[in-house]
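A.,

Following up on our hallway conversation. Structure tokens first:
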């Protein structure tokens, strides 16, 4: 059995509250009542150490840029025109 550290994107460091079990990819939370965590601690006590997280962990997704207000206004005008046309065709 081997384990790999999980990269914490929020803190830009290895995660301090979970580990990943390599055999099945399961994430094991650091919870003393969790049997998988107890197995991990026993594995550490045998002199083992987890693998480092990937050298270049996938960075978190960047936030999209704010919408162009001119584009939004054009879309609103288009929707408004379509609704007006629909209401006209329904006789309202």
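Then the amino acids I'd put at each of the 92 positions:
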């Amino acid at each position: 059995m081997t384990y790999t550290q999980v990269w914490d994107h929020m803190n830009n460091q290895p995660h301090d509250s979970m580990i990943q079990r390599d055999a099945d990819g399961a994430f094991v939370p650091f919870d003393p009542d969790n049997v998988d965590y107890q197995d991990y601690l026993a594995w550490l006590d045998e002199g083992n150490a987890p693998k480092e997280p990937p050298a270049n962990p996938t960075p978190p997704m960047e936030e999209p840029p704010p919408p162009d207000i001119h584009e939004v206004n054009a879309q609103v005008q288009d929707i408004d025109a379509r609704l007006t046309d629909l209401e006209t065709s329904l006789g309202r």
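The mean pLDDT is 91. Curious whether your intuition agrees with the design.

B.
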